[in-house]
Amino acid sequence: MRIAILAHVRQRIAQPFAGGMEAHCWQLAAGLEARGHDVTLFASGDSDPRFAIDPVVAKHYECVFPWAEHRGSAPLIAHLDAGYAAACDRISAGGYDVVHNNSLHRFAIEPRRTAVTPTVTSLHVPPYDALHWFVRASATPGHRLTVTSATQLAAWWPEGAPAQASVLHNGIDADAWRFSPQGDGSALWCGRMTPNKGPHFAAQAALRAGVPLTLFGPVEDPDYWAAEVAPLLGPTVRYGGHLAGAALAAEMARASVFLFTPCWDEPFGLVAAEAMACGLPVAAFDQGAAREVIGEAGAFAPAGDVAALAAAIGTALAIPRLVPRARVERMFTRDIWLDRCEALYRAAGADRAVLAA
């Protein structure tokens, strides 16, 4: 199939990944290419050159409009609208069999566009006003919508989801996150250093539990980092930097427990699945889709409760490492995910064919 992947352009689609959305899009492009599909990645022009890139914008917008997304920036909105309008026009004229839309932009889901090119839109976020009503109006033949968890399906459509919407769990290349039968007794946390990811809670809980902790990920919010996280660093809590996949997988394999501390309704939690593949049980805040993803491979605490999270660390450490690995192999491998993607592409194409007839 000729497949267009339309990415979010806040960050580059390249390693080291800024977050789960970037990892998802990179793995999708790489996985589909490995299956023999002809893939064009519509992303920022500074994304990974291993892919055929058709740039939506020349550079990811965080390097041009840092943090502007969170301030309702009119110049940023105009910049993105211009980029996505032109990219969507090129996709419509490009003869693609399907577009997999990860953009979180309203233009890609307009019925006039999905009527031309069968579209699968993956929603990686809870419903928010800037996109919510556009999504609800877009559930038409030829447009399939996915969310990453049952929790998110209920959040987007509390009255019941339309036939075009379904749960598509994220998948990982389990071979890239190699299982290790034993850890060194330490804890690991990974993600963007922002308040809604909660690394300060992870550090506080590890200190309380007496377990060494290493934090990994980009410092996206320097003010938050300086005020809430940096003061907790010391002999038993350290910052390990922002690592690419292979280096991060090696660090995960050495640890004994993963801390997952979402402070918002996390739609999936890709990094938790990656850690589980390495054999790490998870101590997590019970928020968003955490329990749906982690299941029997972890122990849970109410969101924001440091004492309960510290207790969950001890409980999680007692879970055999084969348990999290088995859960990933059963539910979250890249092959399972890509099989489902291909089925959705065929379904969207069949919808479009019926509509055209």
TrEMBL record:
InterPro entries: Glyco_trans_4-like_N. Signal peptide: none annotated. Pfam families: Glyco_trans_1_4, Glyco_transf_4. Residues 19-175 form the Glycosyltransferase subfamily 4-like N-terminal domain. Keywords: Plasmid, Transferase. It comes from the Bacteria. One of its GO terms (molecular function) is glycosyltransferase activity. This is Glycosyl transferase family 1. It comes from Sphingomonas taxi. The lineage of its organism: Bacteria, Pseudomonadati, Pseudomonadota, Alphaproteobacteria, Sphingomonadales.
